[in-house]
Amino acid sequence: MMSLKLVPSCSQEEVDSEIEKACDFLESTYVDGNYSRITVYRHWSVHNPTISGKIARPSAYRWYLRRELTRLLIKGAEIVIEVAQPRCDLHSPQLLDALDESNFDLTRKKVFLFGPERIDLSLQRIEHYTGTAAEDFQRYVLLTNYQMHMDAFRGLYPHCVAPTRRDVQMPALHAKSENNDGISIVNIGVGPSNAKNFTDHLAVLRPDAMLMIGHCAGVRNHQAIGDFVLASGYMRDDHVLDEVLPQAVPITPSFLLNRYLAKVLDERQLPYRFGAVFTTADRNWELALSRKLKDIKASRCIGVDMESATVTANGFRYRIPSATLLCISDKPLHGSPKLPKSANAFYQATKHQHLEIAQAAIMLARKDYPDGLPNSDLRATDEPLLGGSES
Q1: For residue 349, what is the domain's CATH number?
Q2: What are the start-end ranges of the H helices in the chain?
Q3: Residue 108 and residue 181 in one domain
């Protein structure tokens, strides 16, 4: 069978049957060595009724395809799935030509953000970095740069899926749940380059949310070590995305994720502040304070870190709701730099609490939005992607 047509059905049972048949067809086509093309005719769209796109390795995000195709079919769309072309040889000298995103327009109307070659490569990169299968990734992803958060996650989920080999670069753990609505955590390491690298590839899996949990330097007099920081915006001093996302573009975290984080912090009566987070590429920014302090003061920031703005900016690029839960570990402007004795005591005192807050916030989001957090505010004005947008 070279193609499959899905037409609107009368009952939910018929829709479910059609969607499972479609997912099976997509997966078998890939296993047989080909990419598939999905073409969607949306009768309700005046300006762009027909959109299409190619797909690779559908088993890695079957949950996403099932959800989005179901929405479209229920709304009355007609969907055609067909064999598109042979899969790209990832060892081919022509691979980079197929992957070149120099002129890639993320705002152009399309079914998928990425081409199939990019999906193929990114999924293999994810598996290389994390030591886990792409299919194991869950819809809610925590990002950290501390092994202690990984240990705390194992404490919460003792039966989570772990890397299949030792000494992986960015180990991941997965608390798997039905329909992939559990939680994954990845230790991405330190710095904005790592944050960009991993979230570039994670984006092909279309997670419902990314949440950076880390530490920061507090810069206000009335902040104390152990206080939490929720970002209301970012000062992008990391510069790793400047060429693809101009500094003039405003980047803000997900309001909904922040609301859930604040709710959990309020319920536990824990101190926190909303404010701008200053993300820098220089771990030793305090050693060049005369150059940095002017920008820190101008931004009126409440914390300095190395990953938060990068994660959220890439979330904005790739239409993934993102937010930040930081905890103040040091105050270098107030005579409390990060030193081994005090840092280790702080880590042991906060690691479980930090992770539990993030987990509780995600559980609230999952309960209120079982079909995924709304992300219309992250999309361009004429960009439906694979959803049932009115545009």
Answers
A1: 3.40.50.1580
A2: 12-31, 62-75, 95-99, 116-130, 147-156, 192-202, 255-267, 289-299, 308-317, 340-368
A3: no
Q: Which domain holds residue 105?
A: 3-119
Q: Last residue of some domain: 93, 119, 145?
A: 119
Residue 173 pairs with which residues in a beta bridge?
A: 185
**Distance, CA of 67 to CA of 62 (rounded, Å):** 8
Does any domain span residue 274? yes
Q: Helices 192-202 and 116-130, interaxial angle, to 10°? A: 130
What's the distance, Cα to Cα, between the start and end of the chain in Å? 33
Phi-psi region of 216 (alpha: psi -120 to 50; beta: other; left: phi over 0): beta
Q: How far is CA 185 from CA 106, 113, 134, 202, 326, in A?
A: 27, 24, 13, 12, 15
Residues 65 and 176 in one domain: no
Residue 5 pairs with which residues in a beta bridge?
80
Task: Tell me the pLDDT tens digit for each residue of 314-369.
Answer: 999 999 999 999 999 888 767 666 666 665 666 676 778 999 999 999 999 999 99
> What whole-number distance in Å separates Cα of residue 256 and Cα of residue 258?
5
At residue 155, what are phi and psi to the nearest 5 degrees?
-65, -40
Enter the pTM of the model: 0.92
Would you state the structure tokens that stand for residue 36, as one six-digit string? 């598939």
CB environment 144-179: b (16+ within 10 A), e (fewer): bbbebbbebbeeebeebbebeeeebebbbbbbbeee
| pLDDT tens digits along 148-159 | 999 999 999 999
The answer to whether residue 39 is domain-embedded is yes
Q: What are the C-alpha distances in Å from 254 to residues 209, 330, 345, 361? A: 9, 26, 32, 12
Number of domains composing the chain: 2
Q: Are 131 and 172 in contact (CB under 8 A)?
A: yes
Those residues whose C-beta lies under 8 Å from the C-beta of residue 269, and which sit 6 or more positions away, are none
